[in-house]
Design a protein that fits this description.
14 helices; alpha/beta; about 425 residues
Amino acid sequence: MWAYESVFYQIYPLGFCGAPFENDGIAQNRIKKVADWIPHIKSLGANAVYFCPIFESDTHGYNTRDFFKTDCRLGALEDFKAVFASLHENGIKVVLDGVFNHVGRGFWAFRDVVKKRESSPYLNWFNINLSGNSNYNDNLWYEGWEGNYDLVKLNLRNPAVREHIFSAIKFWIDELDIDGLRLDVAYLLPHDFLRELRSRTSALKNDFFLLGEVLHASNNDIVNDSHLHSITNYSCYKGLYSSFNSMNMFEIIHSLTRLFGPEPWCQFRGTHLLSFVDNHDVSRIASVISNEHHLPLVYALMFAMPGIPCVYYGSEWGAKADKSQGDPALRPSFDAPVENSLTEYISRLSDAKTHSDALNYGSFKSILLTNSQCIFERRTDSERVLVAINAAPTPYEAHFDAQSGTAIDLITNTLHDFGGGSTLPPYSAFYWKTEHA
């Protein structure tokens, strides 16, 4: 699967392109801005872009009005075709956000139900009680997503609803040649829906990637050959930053061992979850990390651990935003990408990851662990990589069995001689490719 060897770049298009929050109905080709960023995306080493919602919606994109239309605030279908063709020409895959659990109040079928009630052919597309009422005084009750009545829950048990969604997916594969879907709130989607989705999309396009948004790592029953290829790794998200903020590397290594370790009971051993240090729903990592020297180290750890690394636009140069400022603050429009030492460092991490069999597919094993340092091993039959992090402001003398005297540092492409151990400089990270043993 191509995604397992990829580095993802996440874009929230409505914010990225500076579209108004409310859908004003005014068509404008804002999506072309993405094409201007392709050189930056490539220089970062990303070879896949995950787009948050692009379909016609009421406001923020997750309240869909029509699965078959691009949002007029971003551009027409032809505008998207041009941008996605440019991405593909540059070797960059395209994954779209599939919001199939719920729709917006502006969704055409829901509007028909509100107007025609029991006479609407779409009454059973939703969970409706005509004897109740809603917060909007519709003279009917409907199920909203987690009690949010801006988001109308779809009845995915209804074959007509499923067929409508599957037809839309086929439309976007045919028209835009998309390479995958990220499924919003995948933890709420019925398992038989996910199985049918996998079967249908695999038949339409070979290696079509399915990623699910999951908040807890207990959903390993939907990552397999008949459901999803991957889910979001929220289980390690907190540990990635709080291990540095509290100088407690035991936290993240414990999480990684529990998920990917050598024991047969480890939940996700051999799978590829989506790794991230921030995204469109949480505070940016540069606003969370308490010591700026740790910012590159967080990325070094995220790229080296088992999974598919994903970088959120703007965070690669250290943009800041806090969740307390509201979601729009997390989803801004930048005039142009910024190139600095952090972007250059991330590009080296991307190169090391995408060209390493061990970092793409290797097992995970903790080698050395203290509050401020960690060394772990990624290994396949063909390659062995040691990953070392020193979060302390002082050098650390690490003694461990390297099983090889000489190694190549994949980040700097320089030789390293272990000699039974290594001195880790302050605030440092290394990926050492050793002789396989």
